Structure formats: structure tokens, C-alpha cells
Amino acid sequence: MTARELFEYFRKDAHWVKADSKADDIRFGDENTGVIKVGCGWSDCLDNLIAAANDGCNVFISHEVPFSWETRYADITQMEWYKKRVKVLSDNNMVLMNLHDTWDHYPKDGIREGFAQLLGLKELIKEMDYIHPFSPTVTTGMNSLGIYRIEKTTAGEFAKYMCQRIAKTGAPGLCLNGDPDQTIETVAIGVGCHVPSLEAAANGAQLLIDVYDRHFQLNSRIPLVESGLPVITVEHSIPETYAMNLMAKHISEKLGIESAYYHNEPLGKYYTT
User: Fold this and answer.
1) 231, 208 contact by CB (below 8 A)
2) What is the pTM of this model?
3) Burial 3-36 (b: 16+ CB within 10 A, else e)
4) I need a labelling partner for 178 at 20 to 30 A (CA). Which of 102, 125, 160, 198 fits?
5) Within a 10 A sphere around the Cβ of 268, how many other Cβ atoms?
6) Higher pLDDT, 28 or 130
7) pLDDT digits (tens, 9 = 90+) for 82-125
8) Phi/psi at 26 (nearest 5 deg)?
9) How far apart are CA 218 and CA 226, in angstroms?
């Protein structure tokens, strides 16, 4: 199987992705390269690429778009971090691709399902579409949001439980806004940064799990807490990375190609008083 054939294997079932979409693509290397071993991870960060290269991977699949930078107008090819990544890829004849929109809604192993598995959420009671908070016309057209029933607990106790569950991703912790003693029986999650908000609460969600770079403090988290909703916030990678572990397993089990999962994104260390 070539790198292009591996890419098309996943894309052929992704009916929710427009045929002409370039959100997912092969971003570096020769698409005709024969696949030997595949590395899967949330991002193409330098530490992921180095670890994959050291393990003999000649293909790396990132969820997020590779070589992402804060502005599309900058010439990233002159930046040190970009040069370091390209050197690893070039020195090891690696192909780099990403499967973002494809894996967002992939059946069973996709982003939200992966996060639900990581958190041990099993009883899905409602699915909903997601509308981008900064554009009412931007919608996925899919059931990005999921509301799950859990055993009755408090927001604080669930936050402690979630800390233990996400530790395997390398996450050093999380942030809970709202009343830690508030009783909850339902939790809402989304497809990564497709985060639940008031629409999920209106449909029965009693605790929302969000990410820092989509639900900002001023215009999202504070109003949600003032609405009586406890909100747990984590880094963007945390709700998405475990599904890339499922992708690696899928490649091994369904295609018989050796694969491995990498989650070496720098998550930092949380300091508290």
C-alpha cells in the first residue's frame, strides 16, 4: 500500500467531507512511497516526528493541519521550528499527511467517540449539530455534540475523575469553572473544538467540557458559569488525541500495517498557589 492509497482508504468512507476539500491532504513527501510503519498523533509537533522516525515510521498521520502557525500570512519556511520539522521528515524520507475532517466523524473510532471512550462515557442520550460561536452560518451538518448520562455526582468529583482519565494523554490537569458542589447527571462533549454551549444545556447537559482556544474566558466561560453551568476546560489536544490512538489500532487491525500512537505535544506543568 502506498501513502496515497492509505489516505484514500480513509477518505472513501468519509461522505461528510466534500470531494474537493483540502482540509485533509498529503502535506510532505512522496505520495507513492510504500508504507512500512505508520505513526499517528494529534499534531506534527517536532517531538512526535522525532519519536516516530526513531521507531521506523515512514508515514506520519497528524489530525491537525501540519505546520500550523498563528497567521496564514507569515512565511513559515524561514522559521526555526518549521526547518526542524522538515529536516526530520527529509532525513527519514517520511510522508506527512493529515486526516482532520475525515477523522472528526469517523464511525466508532472518530474524535468524539474516542474522547467518550477515554472518559468512560457510555450512555449517549442525545446528539446535536454544532454551530461555530463566531459565525451562525458555519455548521458541521453533523452530530458533533453528544450528551451522556452518568451516575449522579458533583462537578468537582467528576473533575477529579476526569483528571485521572486524561492523565494517560499526558495532561497535567484541567480547569473547573462554576460550583464544584453542583449535582450533575449529564455531561456534554463535542468533536474536539466543536464545544457544547447553551444549546447543549437547553437539551439537558448539566456539565460542559470545552477547550481553551474555542471557549474563551470573557465571551464564553464567564457567561456560561453565570448561567449556572459548571464548565471543565482543557487544552485542544486532550479531547482529540486519544482518537489518534484508535486510528493507529485501526491501521494495525484492519490493514495489517504496523502502526504506533504518539502524544508528545508540550502540555506544560500547572503551578498552583
Assistant:
1) yes
2) 0.93
3) bbebbeebbeebeebeeeeeebbbbbbeeebebe
4) 125
5) 9
6) 28
7) 999 999 999 999 999 999 999 999 988 999 999 999 999 999 99
8) -85, 120
9) 12
Q: Are 46 and 81 in contact (CB under 8 A)?
A: yes
Mean pLDDT of 252-269: 95
- Do 25 and 11 form a contact (C-beta atoms < 8 A)? no
Three-class secondary structure assignment of the chain: CEHHHHHHHHHCCCCCCCCCCCCCEEEECCCCCECCEEEEECCCCHHHHHHHHHCCCCEEEECCCCCCCCCCCCCHHHCHHHHHHHHHHHHCCCEEEECCHHHHCCCCCCHHHHHHHHHCCCEEEEEECCECCCCCCCECCCCCEEEEEEEEEEHHHHHHHHHHHHHHHCCCCCEEECCCCCEEEEEEECCCCCCCCHHHHHCCCCCEEEECCCCCHHHHHHHHHHCCCCEEEECCCHHHHHHHHHHHHHHHHHHCCEEEEECCCCCCCCCCC
Q: Which amino acid is at 38?
A: V
- The C-alpha cell 464545544 sits at 195
The three cell numbers of residue 114 are 474516542
- Cβ neighbors of 107 (< 8 A, separation 6 or more) are 13, 113
Read off the amino acid at residue 260: A
Amino acid residing at 43: S
